[in-house]
Amino acid sequence: MDYKKLADLVYPNIIHDTQYYEEMYPSRNLPKGAEVLRIAPSPTGFIHLGNLYGALADERVAHQSGGVYFLRIEDTDEKRKVEGAVETIISVFDYFKIRFDEGAEVEPQGKYGPYYQRQRAEIYQTFAKKLVAEGKAYPCFCTEEDLNAIREKQTEMNVGTGYYGEWAVWRNATYEQVEERIRNGEPFVIRMRAMGNPEVKHTFHDEIKGDIVVTENNMDAVLIKNDGIPTYHFAHAIDDHLMHTTIVLRGEEWLGTLNIHLELFDMLGFELPRYAHTTVLMKIDETGTKRKLSKRKDPELSLDFYRQLGYHPYAVKIYLMTILNWNFEQWYLKNPDADIEEFKFSLDKMGQSGTLFDLEKLNNICKTYLAKFSLEEMKEYLRQFILEYHKEDYDVYFGNEEKLDRILTLGMGLNLKKRRKDYINASQILESIALYYDEFKTQKDEYRFDRDLVRNVLRDFQDAYSYDDDNNTWFEKVKMIGERYGFIADMKAYKANPEMYRGSVSDIAEIIRIAITGQKNSPDLWTIMQILGEKTCSKRLQDAMQEL
RNA sequence: GGCCUGUUGGUGAAGCGGUUCAACACAUCGCCCUCUCAAGGCGACAUUCACGGGUUCGAUUCCCGUACAGGCUACCA
Predict the structure, then answer these.
(1) Which of A276, A350, A364, A470 could form a disulfide with A207 if both were Cys (CB 3.0 to 4.6 A apart)?
(2) Which residues of A148-162 are buried (b: 16+ CB within 10 A; e: fewer)?
(3) What distances in angstroms separate CA A450 from CA A58, A97, A506, A511, one per listed residue?
(4) Could you tell me which residues come within 8 angstroms of residue A539 by beta carbon, excluding any fewer than 6 positions away?
(5) Of A437, A317, A312, whose CA–CA distance to A380 is shortest?
(6) Cα(A485)–Cα(A198) distance, rounded to whole angstroms?
(7) Spacing of A474 CA from B10 C1' in Å
(8) ipTM value greater than 0.85
(9) Any idea what the Cα angle at residue A531 is, between residues A528 and A534, rounded to 5°?
(10) CA of A418 and C1' of B41: distance in angstroms?
């Protein structure tokens, strides 16, 4: 068979040879040791924590080595394409401050584009044509029904499914057979002529997993789909070669098809990049089983979700770093004020088994991170969040900045020896300061004592309270009221013999606290009342008594 | 079904043949401090590293099986 003739028959309009593209995309002139990494999302419009997990690793390795990190859009699957998805991807990565050096929609774009795979169709076809001309690939005219029929038969006969060996019906078709179909205008795909023997295994070194076993490939995988667009496998080989990627970092779901990729690089005569397969991020679902994060099932893991809750992007990155490299956490403990970028990230310090996403840990990291903020930083952070998601409430919070300052000073524990760690994310902060604003305050807790007592305590308190009292005087008054009703002021004495008293000052304070704030727990009540002001306090006491 | 990867406490995880073999962090619990909460301090929390064999003077660490989990097995990525 004259493969050269076949190639011209299949791709009559491809005029360049592969050399043309090799010259168009010459080697990057990078210093020794500089790595080139890429992220290649498909534009489904959905980015979740797992994507950011990988992206952060990519970005660190590239930039830490003085290399290049670029964004390539894998828009090869028309069916899954979502409008505006690329914009979402860019904006999310921008929010998390993941910087690209080149790529789709990045300025400057870079010299290795286009970075949308659909725009590279001719490049892929040129390489496909070369493979056909060398007898390493061939056209296949099987329809979906043909393929289904083959699969059914294979299942029935209990042999492995797939297009391979004698099942690969177009593998040894004659020139005439192909010519006839083409003349009829029938659509076709280009498949690789797999030469591997699945009985033969090799070990392959993965940058994360170490030595792994790779079985030779015998599947005649599709390279170019019938719309002229490549499959992931082919696009990966061509693009990462032409764009000079040095490390292919991707999820371990690709381990299964690594053999195809290896064979492709070999067929094409390309130098093999290094590979690093990351473990997938897992979650426990309702049934109590561990499973991979899924776009469909776990919308709450969407990065947009965290953004809307106002999780601080840097804190999320810190969390991701702790699960990315096991030695990061201890390093960060020792260098609490250092920037993430100062940490020496390494691929061989990544975990081997599926990591479970841990919201508690994320929250804890957020708390300690926000506890480092100054008042100004905290206000700026809130301001951004409110402007984006609660614009209508902006004036309530920022109309009286002095009040907000006092609220945050108390809430953050700015005047304490050790800061409070109450705040996790912006929306949770707004919720916890709602009690200071009549517009947002809600009744969260109920009184634990009978109405008469509550009424008496509140009335006595209102009579005794003076806005000008200092914290001590204020508390003395509360104690006095308590003793009047059998609640002891001495906590030690109370704890020693709780049965001897009706209760303690803490119970009295709780009643007042609920009346004022609507909840039984809060930072220092006296300070809260100072912030609220005399009028608001007496109104709230009045209302509380009325509602009994 | 086939192929690949993994399996240390509630979670993340260190440990790579014996000299702290179970570090550290989160969570949980207890005590202290304390008008509540938060923060902070102190302490508890795997006689055991999925299971069964083997190699060895000796294995969580090496080998082989089994079980379980996850992934791949598309003209999806």
Answers:
(1) A276
(2) eebeeebeeeeeeeb
(3) 62, 55, 16, 11
(4) none
(5) A312
(6) 85
(7) 44
(8) yes
(9) 100
(10) 12
Confirm whether any atom of chain B, the nucleic acid strand, is less than 7 Å from CB of A325. Answer: no
**Chain A 95-124 contacts with nucleic strand B (CB below 7 A):** none
Diameter over CA atoms, chain A: 107
Give the 3-state secondary structure of A243-287: CCCCEEEEEHHHHHHHHHHHHHHHHHCCCCCEEEEECCEEEECCC
A519 touches strand B (CB under 7 A): no
How many angstroms separate the CA of A348 from the C1' of B74?
A: 33
Q: What positions of strand B are covered by protein, i.e. any atom < 7 Å from a CB? A: 1-8, 10-14, 23-27, 32-40, 69-77
SS3 A188: coil
Phi, psi of A468 (to 5 degrees): -85, -5
Asked if residues A313 and A52 have their Cβ atoms less than 8 Å apart, the reply is no
pLDDT in tens, A456-488: 999 999 999 999 999 999 999 999 999 999 999
| CA–CA separation, A409 and A437 (whole Å) | 16
| pLDDT confidence band for A285 (50 / 70 / 90) | low
Residue A475 CA and nucleotide B63 C1' are separated, in Å, by 72
Which sign, positive or negative, has the C-alpha torsion A402, A405, A407, A409? negative
Percent of chain A at pLDDT above 90? 73
**CB of A248 within 8 A of CB of A61?**
no
Task: Report the C-alpha dihedral over residues A184, A189, A195, A201, rounded to 10 degrees.
Answer: -160
> CA of A323 and C1' of B20: distance in angstroms?
27
Full set of structural domains in chain A with CATH: 3-16+121-278 (3.40.50.620), 375-436 (no CATH), 451-546 (1.10.10.350)
Q: Which residues pair with A224 in a beta bridge?
A: A190, A230
Cβ atoms of residues A540 and A435 within 8 Å: no
A314 sits in which H/E element:
helix A313-324
Q: How far is the CA of A388 from the C1' of B42 (A)?
A: 44
Residue A530: CA atoms inside 13 Å, Cβ hemisphere, count?
16
Distance (Å, rounded) from C-alpha A71 to C-alpha A105?
A: 9
Q: DSSP letters along A372-428, please?
A: T--HHHHHHHHHHHHHHH-GGGHHHHHTTHHHHHHHHHHHHTTTSSS------SHHH
CB-neighbour burial class of residue A121 (10 A; exposed 0-12, middle 13-18, buried 19+): middle
Residues contacting A218, CB < 8 A, separation 6+: A164, A165, A194, A196, A197, A198
Give dist(CA A216, CA A539) in Å, integer.
Answer: 79
Residue type, A313: P
Q: What is the pLDDT of residue A540?
A: 95
State mean pLDDT over A389-405: 95
Shortest-distance nucleotide from A257 CA to C1': B72
